[in-house]
Structure formats: structure tokens, C-alpha cells
Amino acid sequence: MKVLVTGAAGFIGMHVVQRLVARGDSVVGIDNLNAYYDPSLKQARLAELVGLSAFRFEPLDIVDGAALEALFAREKFDRVVHLAAQAGVRYSIENPLAYGDSNLAGFLNVLEACRRHPVEHLVYASSSSVYGGNEKMPFSEADSVDHPVSLYAATKKANELMAHTYSHLYGIPTTGLRFFTVYGPWGRPDMAYFSFTRDILAGKPIDVFNDGNMMRDFTYIDDIVDGVVAVLDKPATPDPAFDALAPHPGRSRAPYRVFNIGNQDPVRLGSFIETIERALGVEAIKVFKPMQPGDVVATHADVSALREWTGVSPHTPLTVGIGQFVDWFKRYYSRA
Annotated catalytic, 152? Predict the structure, then answer.
């Protein structure tokens, strides 16, 4: 297939491109290479991809609707994996307008391009953050997600609603993937596991919020990519059992689906830090702080719908995944 991957220089985007090319797909990647975090890491990810014969990169911002339209018209994509977005829960409190531009206007441009140049399937990144203040665990796609606690989460919920509209009006198969705390090699520096590793090795204190009592369903990058590719290969279809009198939020009469992708094994933040300490062989200097605005106490994914739809079920143990990340971190920064 010919596949567009937006956010190709990002953490998940890089790994998805590698997997698609390895199995024989032709991939065009776009990214605006913004400075939300160190652009040199994005450039280094791209350097890992440029030698792939079936991959081509174009610097392009999804906010530029005219440029995106021209790309779709020229390339005639079969399918799209949309991963470009302004990430970060805490950053959305400080810089809300960036989320309106990228996550709302940018996603609308992607939907419009898919409408004008029909594709077989649009797979896009949603987030576990849409569950907001929900306390029923594990989180299920059947749950209401109408109480976001950050603007980032609200934009991801909006993406799901926008996608459903285009699936309903224009018959575009769309699938949203609610990622649960993704980690692994080539990860994002703004994520806790990355900054913990960096600061522990540097002998700097780390901030531990809510006394380390938050729970997260940490999901290894390879499991995430397994899910993305498996879903991409199975375009969304209308749910024949959909009941409009008791509507399931993750399905529809339109070709629309939403799935969780999580490890199904929440870990306490304090235990997570201990896993990093063991992998590094260094004890962290901890500074305990209260919960931050926009954070949630716990996340836990129910992936039964994903497993039923694709056969994929994330499974990488935290000790294995953290070990892989620490090995990469040491190699990358020793050469840098």
C-alpha cells in the first residue's frame, strides 16, 4: 500500500514508518519538526529512516491546508496514519492555542484531504486522557468520556467526534486509537520516564507527583506499533449490532471505530521509578510534590475490543521495556 504517516519524525511515527516499510509498504512521512522538544532528536529519528528505499520525507505542517491538499492530490494515498499533534497535558495549560491549531484545525485539514481524495482507511491517534475524571477501572470504549480534565484531552475527544462526522457524512472509514502512556527507545523527552532517566544519571533530583501514588498503564512502543498496523489493515466498518437507543461510544452505523491500546497492567509511579533505578543501577534523589493540574490519578486499559477486532493484545513486561529504553538512552547520548 501507499501510506501517509503524519508526525513521521515523532516517537510513534518513526517506529510505525519502520514497520510499514519493513513489510513492503511505500510510505510518505510529513512533520513540521517544531521545537516543542529538542528538534535534534526528531532529526536523529529521521536519519534512521532516510536510508529506507520505500520512504520519503517532506517537511509539512498539517495546519497548512493548501500544502496538505496538494500532497494528497499528487500522491493518491491508499491509507493514512495520522499521528501529528501537539502533545502534552501540562503544556496544554500553558499554551492552549497551540492545541487549537494543530489538534483541531490540523485534524480538520486531514479529514478534508481524505474527503477530497478518498482513502481506504484513516487511522488517527487519540489518547487515554479522554477518560478524564472517570474512576471506573479498567477504562472501556463503552464508557462515557464527557469529562476531560485538560485541554489536550478535550482536543482528542473532539478528534473522535470530528472523525465520526466524516465517517457518517462521507463514508470515510476512520479508527481512533486511545494510546496509554507509551514508552520505549527514541521516546519523547517531555515524558516522565525519559526525564527521570536523564536526571537520575546526572545526579539531579526528580519530581515525584502525588507522592508516587499515581497509577499508569505503561505501554511499550512495539506493542503500540503492533496495534497501529493491525488496525490499519482492517478498515473500520459499520457495527451491525449498533443500537441507537443505547449507543456504544466506540462504534456506529457509520464506518467508525475507537480502540484502547494499553498494557492492561497499571503500575504505581513509585514502582515505576524503582524499575528505572534498577535498570540504571542508581538510586534517584526524589522530591515529592502534589498532583498537577490536568493529571489523573490512574489509567487502566480494557483492550478486549482491540483483541477481538485484530487479535493484538499488548504484553511487554515493564522490566523488559524499561531495559530496552535505558540501553538505547545510554547508546544515543554517548554518541551525542
Answer: yes
Instruction: Using alpha carbons, select from 149, 150, 146, 139 the residue that is nearest to residue 160.
Output: 146
Contact (Cβ atoms closer than 8 angstroms) between residue 17 and residue 27: yes
Q: How does pLDDT run across 86-98, given as a tens digit for each residue? A: 988 888 888 899 9
Residues 6+ apart with CB under 8 A from 48: 14, 18, 186
- Is there a contact between 203 and 149 (Cβ–Cβ < 8 Å)? no
Catalytic pick among 152, 166, 193, 220: 152
- CA distance between the termini of the chain: 36
**Which pTM does this prediction carry?**
0.96
Q: What are phi and psi of 286, to 5 degrees?
A: -105, 135
Question: What's CA 67's distance to the chain center, in Å?
Answer: 24
In whole angstroms, give the CA distance from residue 333 to residue 167: 44
Model pLDDT, residue 336: 54
Please provide the average confidence, as pLDDT, over all residues in the chain. Answer: 95
Taking only the tens place, the pLDDT of each residue in 112-145 is 999 999 999 999 999 999 999 899 999 999 999 9
Return d(Cα 330, Cα 336) in angstroms, integer.
Answer: 10
DSSP-assigned letter for residue 190 = T
**Do the Cβ atoms of 49 and 10 come closer than 8 Å?**
no
Q: What is the largest CA-CA distance in the chain?
A: 59
C-alpha cell, 5: 504517516
User: Quick check: 86 and 102 in contact, CB under 8 A?
Assistant: yes
* Main-chain phi, psi angles of 221, to 5 degrees: -55, -40
